[in-house]
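Interim report, section 4.2 (structural modelling).
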Amino acid sequence: MGFFLETFFGGLMAGMLYSLIALGFVLIFKASGVFNFAQGAMVLFAALAMARFAEWVPHWLGTDSKLLANGIAFVLAMACMVAVAWLIERLCLSKLVNQEPIALLMATLGITYFLDGFGQMLFGSDIYKIDVGLPKDPMFLFEQTFPGGVLISQEDLAAAVIAAALVAVLALFFQKTSTGRALRAVADDHQAAQSIGIPLSRIWVIVWSVAGFAALVAGIIWGSKLGVQFSLSQVALKALPVVILGGLTSVPGAIIGGLIIGVGEKLSEVYLGPSLGGGIEIWFAYVMALLFLLFRPQGLFGEKIIDRV
Amino acid sequence: MSVHRPIGEVILDVQNISLRFGGVKALTDISFNVREHEVRAIIGPNGAGKSSMLNCINGVYVPQDGKISFRGQTFSHMNSRQVAEMGVARTFQNLALFKGMSVVDNLMTGRNLKMKTNIFQQAIRWGAAEREETANRAFVEHIIDFLEIQAHRKTPVGRLPYGLQKRVDLGRALAMEPSVLLLDEPMAGMNVEEKQDMCRFILDVNDEFGTTIVLIEHDMGVVMDISDRVVVLDYGKKIGDGTPDEVRANPDVISAYLGTSH
Amino acid sequence: MLDHAAKRPDAPALREKEYGIWQTTSWGQLAERVRSLACGLAAAGLTRGQHIVVIGDNRPRLTAAMLAAQALGAVPVPLYQDAAAAEFSFPINNAEVRFAIVEDQEQVDKLLEVREQCPQLAHIWFDDPRGLRHYAEAGLASLDTLLEAGRLHDKSHPTLFTHEVALSQPGDVAAMFFTSGTTGHPKGVVHTHFSLLDRAAAGKTFDKLTEDEEVLAYLPPAWIGQNIFSFAQWLACGYIVNCPESAATVSIDMKEIGPSYYFAPPRIFEGMLTTVMIRMEDASAIKRALFRHFMALAKRVGTALMDGKPVGVIDRLRYAIGNVLIYGPLRNTLGLSRVRVAYTAGEAIGPDLFSFYRSIGVNLKQLYGSTETAVFVCLQPDHEAKSDTVGVPVDGVQLKLSDSGELLVKSPGLLKEYYKNPAATAEVLTSDGWYHTGDAGFLDAGGHLKIIDRAKDVGRLLGGANDGAMFAPKYVENKLKFFPHIKEAVAFGDQREKVCAFINIDFEAVGNWAERRNLPYAGYTDLAQKPEVYALIRDCVEQVNADLARDELLAGSQIHRFLVLHKELDADDGEMTRTRKVKRGFINDKYQVLVEAMYEGRPEQFIETAVKFEDGRSGSVSATLKIQDVKTFAPTRRAA
Amino acid sequence: MLYRENGQFKTSYRADQQIFPIRQDRVVIVAFLALAFVVIPGLASEYMLRAILVPFLILSLAAIGLNILVGYCGQISLGTGAFMAIGAYAAYNFNVRIEGMPLLLSLVMGGVCSTAVGVLFGIPSLRIKGLYLAVATLAAQFFTDWAFLRIKWFTNDSSSGSVNVSGLQILGWHIDTPADKYLFCLGLVCVCALMAKNLVRGHIGREWMAMRDMDVAAAVIGIRPVYAKLSAFAVSSFFVGIAGALWGFVHLGSWEPAAFSIDRSFQLLFMVIIGGLGSIMGSFFGAAFIIVLPIVLDNLPYWFGIPVDTALASHLTNMVFGALIVFFLVVEPHGLARLWSTAKEKLRLWPFPH
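Predicted structure of the assembly:
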C-alpha cells in the first residue's frame, strides 16, 4: 500500500511538471490557434539560458551571492524568452495568419529546430546544472498511518508546489487582468477581437512570453532535477499526450491531464513494466491518450466541433 | 413554364423531421414531399433552417425525430453514402468545391461511385483502369459542354470567378447522374446575367435529364418563376406549402417576408 | 471528295474539338455520312437545282450537308450565323429555299421567326438538339433523323446516290453566296463547280499545297474566303480542316492545332498583334527590353530574310538568337509556328502590321479577290510580298484597267451571275466576260497589282490649301487603325477642303492602358472622352500625318481634326458590314451633326444615338464629344 | 521559351491524360532517366553514390509515401519513422527466418506489414482530426521505438539489439558495389513513383484530395471517409515501409531502432513540406534538398577555409533547417514543386508574363 502511494505521489509530482509544460501549449493554442511544438525547445532554451547566466553572472559582477546570481539570471533568461517570443511573432506568426493549423504546426517544428540549434550555439551543448536551492533530501509522510510511511522527495514536492502556484498565478492573470481578458477574447474569436481593437500581434507576443515563462519555470525545475541538456527538449514530447488528453483549449484540462498521465505512467511502469520488458513509459502515455481520444475526440475539456455546410 | 414535364408520383417524402443543436431548435416537425420530375423549392428567410433541411436529407446532420422515405424505403436518418447511391446529388450554398483540383478533376470526383476498378489496377493503370478513366472522362466532358465551361476545363477551380465556380459545383452534382438534385441557393451572390444562365441550366437539367430538383433560394422572384411547388420555412417551422400562387397568397408567408425585409 | 474517300479512306478529313479532344472524321466516314445525308435530303424532296440554306458555325456535319446537297446537284446557300433573323428572310425568299440545315436552337429560333415571311420553308434540320426537345413546329427535325431516313432511303434506292453524283457537270451551279452588300439587298453570287474548283486548284499549285496541310476553320462559312479555304480548296487538296470547340476557345484551339495554311482578314492579325502588345506591356522590364531589341532586329533582318534578300552572317546569327528568345515563342503562343503559307485579304493591311508577322518568320502574304471572283485573282509569291501591293495575277487571270482607273478582271473563277438580278449582273459583267471589281489600282513595275481604294471612294479635296489633291480614305483609316489603341477610324474629306476623322478607341487596349495609369473610367463612353485618351490618340494621328506627309501623292490627306466616338461602330447598328468594313456613307449621314461640327471648327458637339444591344433590345447613348485639332506637316519629298 | 506546342493536339482522352502531355517534357524526362540509369553509375564517385544518391533515392520514396498521406489526403503524420522501422524489421525477419526468401519479396513483405500497422494506426483518423491526429501518430513512433528495442523477437534475439543483413542478390545479381545498390534503388524507386503517380491521378487519388479539400462535400458525393482515409494510410505506409526496408538493407546494412527515430519522421515531413505538399515530383525535390543542404553547410566553411567544429556545424544546420521550414511555409507553402511548375508556366508563356 505504502509503495503504491509512493508511486502515486511520485506520479502526481511528475504530472505537475507535465502540466506545467502542457500549460505552455494550451496558452498558445488558445490565444493563437497554434499547436506549439516548440514548447520543448523553449524549455531547453530557457533552462540553458538560466543555467549559463547563473554561471556567468558571478564572473561579471564579481559577487558570489547565489541568490543574487540566480535572481539576475532568472531575469535575464526571462528577457531572452520575451525576445524569442517577439521574434517568433514578428518573423513567423504574423506572416502565417489564417493559415490552416497544420501549416502552423509545421512552422513550430521549424522553430523547434531553430531554437535547439540557436540555444546550444549561444549557451553551449554540454550538461549544465541549475541549483536554485531546492531541498534535495527525501522526507516521510503518514509514518503513523502505516509502517515505513511514504517516501517523497522534497524536491518533487517543492516543484509541485511551485507548479501549483504558477498555475494559480496564471489563472488569476487570465481572470483578473485586462490583458488576460483580452487574451480570452482573442482565444474565442480572432476576427472579433481584432474588430474591437485588440492588437493581435501584441497579444501574441504576450502569450508567447507567458508560455516562455512557464517554459522557464519548468526548465528550472527539470534542470535542477536532471541537469540541463538536450534531452530536456524531449520532455515536451511527454507533455503532448497530456494536452490532447486534457483538451487543447482548456487550462484545467492541462492540469488534470498532466496528473492523470503522470500517475498512469508511473503506475504502469511499476506494475506493467516488468511484464512488458520495461521502459514502457515512453509510449504508455501516448497510447493512453490515443485510446481515450477514440471515445472523446476533443479531449477531456475541449469543445466539440460542429462543421457547417 | 412553356415546357411541360410529366410530373410523377412522390419520390422523396420527409415526415416530421426535427433537428436540434444542443438547445437550439434548427427544425421542428417539418413534413413535405417531392414528386418525380418536379422542381420543388424550399424558401424562407435567413436562418429559417433551409440548409439544415438539406443536410438532414443527405445525411450530413442526423435529425432527432422524424423519418425520410425515398422511393418507398424509409430511414430514420440517412447515411451520405447511401443517399448518394440512391441517386441524390447536391450543391452547396457557400461553394464546397475541391479547391486544389482542376475543373475536370472536380467533376470526375462526382463519378467516383461509377468507378469500380480496385487500387491495384489503378496503380498499374493498364486496361480496365485506363478504360474506366477514359469512359468517365468522356461523360464528364459532356457535362462540361452542357454547362459551357470548355474554356476552363483545366484551370484549378480556385482561380475561377464565383459564377463559374457555382457552375462547376452544379457540374459535379450532375456527374453523379442524379435522379434527385438538391440545390442550396444556386443563385446566391450572382449578378442578373449569371442568375439567368443558372436558371436556364437548372431548367435544362430538369428538362433534358428529367431530374427531380429541390432548390433552396431566398430570391423569391426566381423561385416563383421556375418551381412547380414551394415549401416555406420560417424559424425552423413550415409556414406554407403549395404552388407558387398559393404560397404568394398565404398570409403567414407574406408576414414572414415582410417581417424580414425580403 | 469521293475520290479522296476512295484513295485514302482512313486519312483524316475533318477534325472538330468537342468534349475536350479532337474528334476526327476520316474521308471514308465523311463519304458515308454524305451519302446518307444526300439520300435523306432526296427522300425529303430536295432535287437538282433547288437551293438549301446552311446556317451555323464551322461544324463537320454542316460541311457534310453542303456536300450532300451538291451531290444531288442542289445548291447550298451558306448564310452568316450571326445575322439577325430579319436578314435571313430576303435570301430565303429570293432563292425560294424550301430546306434549311442549321446548327442549333439559336438558328432554329431565328428561322421560325421569319417563317411567316417565308412560307415555302418546309424543312429545318438542326445539328445540336439541345433545348429543342419541346419544339413541336412542323418540318423541324434533327440531323440524326435525317441521317436515319437517309440510310433507309439508301437501302431502298441503292443506285440513287452514285447516279445523282454522276449526273452533275462542272458547269452546274455549285453554291451561292450572298454578298453582305454595303448598300441595298444582298446579292446572291452564283458559282459553278468549275469556277470554284478551278480557282482552288490554281491556288493549290501556286503555293504547292499538299494533302498534309492543317487548316483551322473559324470564320463564318458564309464568307467566300472561309468557304474557299475550308471547303473548295479542302476538296481540291484534300488537306485537313479543323473546327474549334467554341468561339471562346478559338485561340486555345489555334495554339493546339498550329495550322500550316492560314487565312484571315487583317483585323484578325490586328487583334492578335494588339493582344501581343498589351500582354507585353505587363511583362518585366528585362523581357520588354529583349522584346524591343529583337523586334527592332527583326524589322531589319527578318523581313529581308522573308523576302529572300541577302543578309549578313552576324545578323543571321543574331536573328537566330532572337528566334529562340522571342520570335519562336511568339509564333508558338499565337499558334503560327507551323504556318507555311498565311494569307490576308478583304481589305488593305497596315504596313507595320504586315511586316511584323513577316519579320517574326510567318510567311504572311496578301491576295486579291472577292466573292464574285472566287477569291483568287492575285497572289503574292513567296519572297515577293509587299504590304502595299496584292501580288501578281494567278494563272488564268487577265487584268486590265478601265480608263476611269477601275480594275477589270477576266478569270475562270468569275461568278456565273447574280441570282435573279440580271441588271446587277450586267452592271459588273461585261458581255465579253470582263468583271468590274470597283477597285482603283494599277500594276507596278514588278507586275504586282496595287490597290489604292474602292474606285468610288477615291475622292479629291476641294478648295483649301491642297485643292484637288487625291484623297483615299481607306488608306488613311488603315494607317490609323494600325495603332493598337485605335479600333476603327472613318476619314472624311471628299469634296471638302481638309480631312477630318472619327476615331473608335479599342476598349480593351485603351482600358488596359488607363488601368496601368490608374485612370478611373465609368465605361466606354466615359473612357473615350478622357482628355488623357484624347492626348494618346492625338499622338497616333500626328504620327500618321507625319507618315502621310512623306508620300507626295497623299500628303493632302493629312488629318486636320478628329474626335473620338462615344460608341463602338457596330454591324448591328448598320454602321459596318458583317465583315466589319465601315459603311462610310451611312456613317456620314448618321453622324451628320458631328461631321458638320468638325468642319465648322466647333470645340465640342453633343450627340445622341440609338443603339441595338446584343439581345436585340435598343436604347440610346448620348454624350458631348470633344473635337481636337492636330498638327500637320509640310509635304516632304521622299528621297528617291 | 523552349516550348513549341503548336500541332500537339490530342485526339483521344488517353493521350490527353498522360503524365507528360507536352512533347518537350517527355523528351526531357527520357533524357533525364537515361542520364540516371546509364551515365551516372559510370561517372559518380563511390562517395557520391553511397552517401548521397542512394539515401536520396530511398528517402524520396519514403517522402512520396508520406506525401500521399499528408499532401494528398491531408492527414498529418509525425510517425513516419515508425513505419520505415516496421518495414525494415519485417523485411529483416522474413529475410532471416524464411530460408531462401527472395530479396524483392521480403522488401515487399516489409511494405505489406507496415501497411497493416499503418491501417491500424490510421483508424483513429476516422474520429480524430488535424492536430489531435498529429499527436496520435506520435504514439506509433514511440511504440515502435520501444518495441524494436525491447522485444527481442523482432531483432531475432541479437545480443547487441542491432541487426544486419548482407549478401543481397536478385536472380544472381549480387548487389554489393555502391553502383549496384544505386541502380537497384533507382529501379525500385522509379517503379514505385510511377505507381504512386498513377494512384494520385486515378479516382482513388481524387477521393483522397476530395477528403483533404472538403470532407463534407466528399461524403455527400458518395466518398466513404473510412475507405478514403484508410486507403491513404495503407498506400502511404506501404511505400514508407519499402523505403524503410531499403534503408536498412541497402543503405545501412546493419542498424538499430535509433535509425528510425522521431528525427527521421520530422526529416521526412520537412522533405514533404519543402518539396511541395501534394506533388510526387516535389517529394524528390524535397529529399534532394534536405540531403544536400547539410552536406553543403558542413563543407561551406572548409571551402572558404574557415575551421568550424562539428558541434557548431550541426547547430548551424539545425538553425538553417528551422529557418528554411518557416521561410517556405511563409513564402511558398507549396514548396519547390510549385516554384518548378510556375517556372515551367513562365517558360510556356514566354515572353508574356501571363
